[in-house]
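Figure 2 data, in text form.
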Amino acid sequence: MSGPVGFDAWTALAGDSPTSRTEWAAVVAAWSEPHRTYHDLAHLAAVLGLVDRLAPDVPDPAAVRLAAWYHDVVYDPRRADNEQVSADRARAGLRGLVPDERVDEVVRLVLLTAGHDAAPGDANGAALCDADLAVLASPPAAYAGYASAVRAEYGHLDDETFTAGRIAVLEQLLALPRLYRLPAAEEWEPLARANLGAELTLLRQRAGGASGA
């Protein structure tokens, strides 16, 4: 496997050792689980590519890249603590491969993706969150594909339950003072908010129709 999720990209961050090779294979296997229709290797590759674009604005790009590898390494739509478990997985997997201080930063960054609300001045956190949320600024047709893929991941939920939960997520995102924090990502803001607003309007209409049926 080559490219952003290939072993060469991983070794640039975690070295080339038997332990590192085993960890890379385990991480790739996790991202390849069959239930993932959006949070998959393509998403990981996209986030890593965007982190590379944003890297000039951050103090520890290696930590941000490692956090990208782990930010959804555990992804089970039936549980609410995926970010915490992913952070724990990062701490365990990176032990002995990178300095402890960098492991701590990776863990902190992974946990930030639960709310995508990096503090002012947190360039590392902003880079990871901006890259993770970049899909929201896709062209409308691509955004619709993203939304459909997320719905598929929650196929165990009925439409009413999913719609209520998705509305809450969209409202939380739109309530953020800024979706994107780094200067290189600021131009994504208008389209992302337009996409979120359009989806939210559609879901509210569906919810209203369901409640009035």
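Caption note: The chain has one domain: 3-212.
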